[in-house]
Amino acid sequence: MKRLALTFIAALFLAATSYADEYEKTCSDILNKVKGGETAVDYAALRLNCARTSWYVKRKQSKIDEMNRKMYAAAGEKNYAEVKKLAKSILDINYLNMTAHRMLSWASEALGDSAESKRHLDIEIGLLRSIGQSGSGKNCREGRIVIDVEEEYFVMRIMGWKLKRQQSVSDGDNTCDLMQVVDSEGNERNEYFNVNIVFENYSRKYK
Length: 207
What we know:
The structure is a single chain. The protein is of the alpha+beta class. The protein has helices at 2-35, 43-50, 54-57, 61-76, 80-93, 98-110, 114-132, 149-159, 196-206, and strands at 144-145, 162-171, 174-182, 188-194. The chain has a 4-stranded mixed β-sheet with strand order 1-4-3-2, with helices on one face. Helix 5 runs antiparallel to helix 6 (98-110) and helix 6 (98-110) packs antiparallel against helix 7 (114-132). The protein is globular, with a radius of gyration of 19 Å.
C-alpha cells in the first residue's frame, strides 16, 4: 500500500512538471519569434503561457517600478536615448510589459528609427488586443483576462477611463476586479477584469 501511494504521488509530480514544462516551451517558442522580429503571433497564447512560467512569477516587479519612474522622468526631459535604454531594461525582465513597448516605440520614433518604433507598437497593440478579445468585461463571468494588475491600469489609461472605485468580486470559479470608471465622455460604467491568474501567481510566489 505504501509503495502504491508513493507511486501515485510520483505520477502526480511528473504530470505537474510536464504541465509546467509545456507552458515554458510554448511561451519560449512564441517569445523567440517576437524577439526575432515576427509580430504576427498569437498574443493571447503568449501572455497566458508566459504568465505561468517561473521567470514571470518570480520577476522583480519592484525593479520594474523603479525603472518605470526613471523612464517617465527621462521622457519628461525628452531624453529619448535614456527612455529607450530603460524601456529595454524593463523588457529584459518582462517582455510582456506594454508600457515599456509603448515608450520604446515613442522614443525610437523620436530618434529616427521608424522600423523599431513600428515593431514595438505592433507588439503593444497585439498584447492589448489579446486582453480586449478575452472577454466583454460586462460581468465577472465575461471579465477581460489579465495576468498582472498593471495590465488593468494600462487598459484604463489607453481607453481614457478614470477610476472611481475598485472592488473584488467573484462568480463561480472566477475572481474579478470590478472597476467603476468614468469614460472619456463622462459616463460611468463597470468594467470587469478576470484576475484568476494574478491570484494563482501570488500563491505560487509566496508559498
